[in-house]
Amino acid sequence: MNLFLAAFAALGISSSIMVIRANNPVYSVLYLILVFVNVSGILILQGLDFFAMIFLVVYVGAIAVLFLFVVMMLNIKVEEKQESMLRYLPVGGGIGLIFFLEVVIGLDKEFVPLNLLSLGPSYESEILPEYLHWGETLAQKTGIEAIGQVIYTYYFYYFFMASFILLVAMIGAILLTLHNDPKVKRQEVFEQNAREFSRTIQKAS
Amino acid sequence: MFYLFESDFLGLIPETFLLLGLSALLGYGVWYEKGRESDMTSHQLWIGGLCLVFTFILLCESPLMNMILCYNTLIIDGMSAFLKSLILISTLCIFGLSFAYLPQERIKAFEFIILLLLATLSLMLMVSSYDFISLYLAIEFQSLGLYVLAALKRDNEYSTEAGLKYFVLGAFSSGFLLFGASLIYGLTGTTNFEDLGLLFTGVGPTDLFTQGSIVVGLLFLSVAFLFKVSAAPFHMWSPDVYEGAPTVITAFFSIAPKLALFGVLIRVFYLGFFDFLFSWQQIFFFCSLASMVFGSFGALGQVKIKRLLAFSSIGHVGYMLIGLATGTLQGLQGIFLYLLVYMIMTINAFSVVLSLRTREGEPKFLLDLKNLNLKSPILAITLSITLFSMAGIPPLAGFLSKFYLFFAALDASLYSLAILGVLSSVISCFYYISLIKLMYFHKADEVELKPILPIDSQKGLLLGLSFFGILFIFLYPSPFFLLSHAAALSFS
Amino acid sequence: MSLIHSLHVSFVVFLLGLVGIYLNRKNIILVLMSIELMLLGINLNLLSFSVSLDDLLGQVFALFILTVAAAESAIGLAILVIYFRLRGTIDIEFIRLMKG
């Protein structure tokens, strides 16, 4: 398990470095897809099967594909110059490193696992902390069932808000990009159906 | 199951009405637009305005004063009622300003009104939010609508660039907000503000070992909010976005999200993290100083009107952050009073800017203000009084609010903030007076003065009402004092 | 044991997203991809915390962040498309119309 976690983590981090460093934006999108897949792998190791699949469906299947469409549609030139980011790397990288160390060192002591008591049968004991084992004596719900029990009942407000957000995104995307080109010929079906024959042809003299 | 959350919808009646109203407007716009394109925006503006008036009435007459809704995700209290009514009034004023603006700029999309109403709905829900998840969802809801509105004029390069910059900075700050919220969640196990406040009781101001990790999360949260409210040193995006966006949208940006975000800031920091006062007080102290300084010095070199207004709004945010940094109820009352007065002043300022339209287009540069006294003396005097009020000259409304805030700061022993506030008021006075000199005392060249187009009745009404407010609040401020005090008392 | 490791991964992914926005000298679509990386890091963060705390709220939060990320990327790409239609390029150097 640790090996898988290490593998997915290493691949994920190196892919995300390549996202920002790749010259060709199509490569960046493909590396982004690789990051998403690796993070899904980490989630499966944690036991969150629903989220792993949802990440694949939504992130890879919708968002990354959308990015790929847009990258293909816009005529993005492949950058030749390589050295422009390296100038900022010492300062930016240093700040990033300090930031990372501060967050990690500041928080490292908080997450000490309590593996002193062993209350139940040792079953995936390296992934879950030991104090979770009592939950398996009760009826076990799958991930998706547990979430469904909560978001449609107690947290229905979040569900409504998510739907409003999607409404705004839809209105906004259509408002911004819909292009009613007057040169494009269209058919107005209702007008065509409402035409009366007796009025369409008239004698001219 | 049906009876479990019945009272939740009773508490959300104003928001539900607004939602149903805007859905009806959306349906009307979509199905009846053919053949009525030229009138559709004004129809929607009138009906949308009516919708807002009814929502305001529902809000004021609501019998539910203090309630926690939807399983601890929303709260209704005095502050939320106050801020929601301010938000509704400000959106109504923005609608009033857009009656003339939309036809003049040839914006035919009725979705403008729908998006503004959706943004208002989200701001109302943001003010009521009681949990990090509902807060984030409301912030994103508002932000998405406003990204689209900032980029609305698709054939104008400034507008699309403004939309892009606003999008990048907004998403970036939402990322910070989420990171802070996720850290707080991981360290405490809850995202509800009240639970966090209860959990942190007695943590103690000097116990850095226990406090250290929460402070990291708090730092991210406060940076995110300061980005969104455009306080210095995170203010870089706002002059560009304010300049590029359509002017009524800039007016909306300056007023309504700041109202809601200050409500959110107060709820997060006074309710959720009050025990960490000595940590976040320093952050807001520093940012308040920086905002006041940047707001006044940054505006000195500006040549465009909307950028000047953006820098002056950064300065105002700096003053409001003084009230936030105090940690007392007096500071809160000062913030609410300042928000009220700021709303009136900003509406007046933007109404004047929108009234200065000539046949060629709207004014972009400060030099377009020159000789306003000859073109329209009433507009000139309105603008000068508003600028004096923004600077904080005594018998005007701005002075009252600043006075109150500085007193609150002195009471909380934040002496340097009060002193620096006064100094930056003096510096901002300098550039306001240079504007007034431009309007009155500029040498009238022999080049013909471009006459300004006549103002429509809605803008005139707004100008008159806000001017009246600025002049005479000082004579009878007690209703505003009572309102803001009632709002602040919800945190006692 | 693995909580800290997945937290490290999520922090690094978030950081790389942050770095991608700041040190970006190429084009704007990289900025949008870095925003997605940031949100991905946050999601992983929340999900790891949810597993370790045995609490469902983190998973609910992550689900809604996912939804919002999708909507936001749609709007971001729409704004990018209209910007491109007007300017013909999405290089960072040309976003200089308004100084600052």
From TrEMBL, chain A:
Xref: InterPro entries: NADH_UbQ/plastoQ_OxRdtase_su6, Nuo/plastoQ_OxRdtase_6_NuoJ
Keyword Plastid part of the UniProt annotation: no
Membrane topology: Multi-pass membrane protein
Keyword terms: Electron transport, Membrane, Mitochondrion, NAD, Respiratory chain, Translocase, Transmembrane, Transmembrane helix, Transport, Ubiquinone
Residue spans crossing the bilayer: 50-76, 88-107, 155-178
Entry's EC annotation: 7.1.1.2
Subcellular location: Mitochondrion membrane
Pfam families, A to Z: Oxidored_q3
Cellular component terms (Gene Ontology): mitochondrial membrane
GO molecular function annotation: NADH dehydrogenase (ubiquinone) activity
Main location: mitochondrion
Superkingdom: Eukaryota
Catalytic activity: a ubiquinone + NADH + 5 H(+)(in) = a ubiquinol + NAD(+) + 4 H(+)(out)
Coiled coil residues, start to end: none
UniProt function note: Core subunit of the mitochondrial membrane respiratory chain NADH dehydrogenase (Complex I) which catalyzes electron transfer from NADH through the respiratory chain, using ubiquinone as an electron acceptor. Essential for the catalytic activity and assembly of complex I.
Family recorded in the similarity comment: Belongs to the complex I subunit 6 family.
Protein name as it appears in the record: NADH-ubiquinone oxidoreductase chain 6
The species this protein was found in: Chloropicon primus
Lineage, highest ranks first: Eukaryota, Viridiplantae, Chlorophyta, Chloropicophyceae, Chloropicales
TrEMBL record, chain B:
One BP annotation, GO: ATP synthesis coupled electron transport
Primary localization class, coarse: membrane
Keywords from the named record: Membrane, Mitochondrion, NAD, Translocase, Transmembrane, Transmembrane helix
GO cellular component, one term: membrane
Occurrences of domain NADH:quinone oxidoreductase/Mrp antiporter transmembrane (ranges): 129-428
Membrane topology: Multi-pass membrane protein
Sample GO molecular function, one term: NADH dehydrogenase (ubiquinone) activity
Domain of life from the UniProt record: Eukaryota
HAMAP family: NDH1_NuoN_1
Stated name of the protein: NADH dehydrogenase subunit 2
Encoding gene per record: nad2
InterPro entries: NADH-Q_OxRdtase_suN/2 (IPR010096), ND/Mrp_TM (IPR001750)
Keyword Cell membrane applies: no
From TrEMBL, chain C:
Entry membrane topology: Multi-pass membrane protein
InterPro entries found in the cross-reference section: NADH_UbQ_OxRdtase_chain4L/K, NUOK/Mnh_C1-like
TM ranges: 6-23, 30-49, 61-86
Cellular component annotations (GO), alphabetically ordered: NADH dehydrogenase complex
GO molecular function, a single term: oxidoreductase activity, acting on NAD(P)H
Cell location: Membrane
GO BP annotation list: ATP synthesis coupled electron transport
Keywords noted in UniProt: Membrane, Mitochondrion, NAD, Translocase, Transmembrane, Transmembrane helix, Transport
Pfam families linked to this entry: Oxidored_q2
Family: Belongs to the complex I subunit 4L family.
HAMAP family per UniProt: NDH1_NuoK
UniProt name for this protein: NADH-ubiquinone oxidoreductase chain 4L
